Amino acid sequence: MQKSLSESGYDWASGRGALWRDKLDGMEALLAPVDMPLIEALALDLPCRIAEIACGGGGTTRAIAAAAPAGSEVTGFDISPDLVAAATARAGDVARFVEADVSTYRPDRPFDRLASRFGVMFFEDPAAAFANLRHWLAPGGRLAFAVWGPAAEVGFMAQLRATVASVMEVASADPDAPGPCRYGDPAKLIALLGAAGFEDTASRSVHCMLPVPGDTPEAAAAFLLASSSMAAPLADAPAELRERAHARLTEICSGHFEDGRVQMPARVEIVTAAG
Fold first, then answer.
1. Quick one: which of 199, 192, 195, 196 has its CA closest to 275?
2. Which of 1, 9, 255, 267: CA 20 to 30 A from 66?
């Protein structure tokens, strides 16, 4: 076995953000099926000011802008300068983007809606971050956050972990540390939002199929291995182990290949609350 892989490091301001930017088209295509249930949960019934938290490359921000009533203002916030630059270049005049650490940043005026697609699971101090975000939401406003369900119910994550664990040692993930499935049990997030002063908190599960980029199972496997948090340790592993991981994941992707693409199931939690 190779050296242990830790899953606790998510340096979005630099390395991780740059990796996401370099895979931006593929990542936005993979996650696009989550946009519609998230936008529906925002209840965009009147023109309003909307902020997307940890907006990444801006794909969801643009989708929100397209769905919002005329006269709405949409702003995406992200800690990664690489992703903010990419989002700005793609958005035209439909939205604006701001580089900021949302756990401490305060906007000049509150927003009527707060949205986030997989962006609120990485705060070092979530209680303080959500308390700060409470100041972002105007009285009577609404938030909708999409977070991953349990890792075992997010197909591509479960398969990636099993694949890498078959060729190298994988450290056990701390369920309370920053990470994608931190709120797989949405009760944790609901409790944090309640403690921060949000009201009427609720969650609902959404089950969807996510299209993995790549025209073949081999290409889909390569994309998943290169774009995940496991890319760095695999890059340092001997070529023979990297080849074994790719072959194993290709076999798994082949079982999910239909109509010219790999699709994997995922459970997503849509958590809502009011200001």
1. 199
2. 267
What's the rounded Cα separation, in Å, for the pair 7 and 207?
A: 25
Q: What pTM did the predictor assign? A: 0.92
What is the full DSSP assignment across the chain?
A: --PPBP-----TTTHHHHHHHHTHHHHHHHHGGGHHHHHHHH---S--EEEEES-TTSHHHHHHHHHSPTT-EEEEEES-HHHHHHHHHHHTTS-EEEE--TTT---SS-EEEEEEES-SS--SSHHHHHHHHHTTEEEEEEEEEEEE--GGGBHHHHHHHHHHHTTS-BPPP-TTSSSTTTTSSHHHHHHHHHHTT-EEEEEEEEEEEEEES-SSHHHHHHHHHHHSTTHHHHHHS-HHHHHHHHHHHHHHHHTTEETTEEEEEEEEEEEEEE-
pLDDT tens digits, one per residue of 113-143: 999 999 999 999 999 999 999 999 999 999 9
> The domain 15-274: what is its CATH number?
3.40.50.150
Beta bridge partners of 147: 269
pLDDT at 62: 97
**Which positions ≥6 away from 92 have C-beta within 8 Å?**
none
Q: At what angle do helices 155-165 and 239-254 cross, to 10 degrees?
A: 140
Domain ranges of the chain: 15-274
* Per-residue exposure over 41-61, b if at least 16 CB sit within 10 Å of its own CB, e if not: bbebeeebbbbbbbbbbbbbb
